[in-house]
Design goal:
alpha/beta, seven-stranded mixed β-sheet, five-stranded parallel β-sheet, 8 helices
Length: about 300
């Protein structure tokens, strides 16, 4: 019997394991090795690890976790979960059956690439979602933003801290007249029409192909495609979710516990706000700490 099984071993899952291992709790971490930010060459904004490759940070984290004898890392996913608090069962992709008193779900989300030639190939380099992660490196340059809904207006206001040279691509979205007036007042041009292709050039730059007009070159393109959880275990477990502009997130309380007692969630899977390596790490740490405290006698 494990004290905790952690499903998902990226930043949130390993941060949870570290806290539990230091509390000498028996932990198994299941991970498929497909973290969301594996497409990024560098991870920015994480204290002490700024500009390091995400894979290098995770490799070092796993090496450090090997110091704790109660932590077991398994290169496998979870095919199914059943049971209740103090008696959960997990069947791994390798066919191993595991038991645990608590579960932490940190299996993350998957960004769903639009059917636009070149978009997926440029994701994480020339096309990115987060100015806090990549904005500093391209400050004062020409940015592009793919409009995804009313929330995009907040992005426009946010981007002004990094650049005053911004172009919005409507990409067949209807931009409300009041938003268009606001954009015009900010001298932000709007390119109507559908994006039909993206050609990456240089480290961040991209040329955006439009079906109704000439190509537009930008130094970086920000986009917020729809996403979905990378597994469906939360559905099987009937966990409550909350809607976000781009998908869903598992709902948790202040202790990172979900709607089902004994199941905790952390990282992008449970973050309806601004996902990042930093938030995933602290959420994972909190999930580990509160899961441990829930088992005190």
């Amino acid at each position: 019997m494990n004290d905790v099984i952690i499903i998902g071993g990226s930043f949130a899952g390993l941060a949870a394991a570290l806290q539990l291992g230091r509390a000498r709790r028996k932990v198994t971490v299941l991970d498929t090795g497909l973290q969301r930010n594996r497409f990024a060459g560098r991870s920015h904004g994480m204290l002490g690890h700024d500009h390091k490759p995400p894979s290098a940070i995770l490799t070092e984290a796993r090496r450090q976790l090997a110091h704790y004898p109660t932590i077991r890392l398994v290169n496998a996913g979870a095919d199914s979960v059943s049971g209740a608090i103090d008696d959960f069962s997990v069947l791994t992709g390798d066919g191993e059956s595991l038991k645990a008193r608590r579960l932490i779900l940190s299996y993350g989300i998957v960004d769903q690439m639009p059917d636009v030639p070149g978009f997926a190939e440029a994701w994480g380099t020339a096309i990115v979602p987060c100015p806090y992660c990549d904005g500093f490196e391209v400050a004062d340059q020409h940015w592009g933003l793919v409009w995804s809904g009313p929330q995009s207006m907040n992005q426009v206001r946010l981007f002004h801290d990094w650049t005053d040279n911004l172009t919005v691509f409507a990409d067949v979205h209807d931009i409300a007249p009041d938003f268009r007036a606001d954009l015009a007042g900010r001298k932000v041009p709007v390119i109507d029409g559908r994006i039909t292709g993206v050609a990456r050039h240089g480290s961040h730059g991209a040329t955006i192909k439009i079906d109704t007009g000439p190509d537009v070159a930008v130094d970086i393109l920000f986009a917020h495609p729809r996403n979905k959880p990378s597994a469906s275990l939360h559905e099987t477990l009937g966990l409550t979710t909350v809607a976000t502009p781009t998908g869903i997130a598992i709902k948790t309380d202040d202790r990172r516990e979900t709607s089902t007692p004994g199941i905790y969630a952390a990282g992008d899977l449970a973050n309806p706000g601004i996902p990042s390596v930093t938030t995933a790490t602290w959420q994972g740490a909190m999930a580990g700490i509160f899961a441990q405290q829930s088992m005190l006698v």
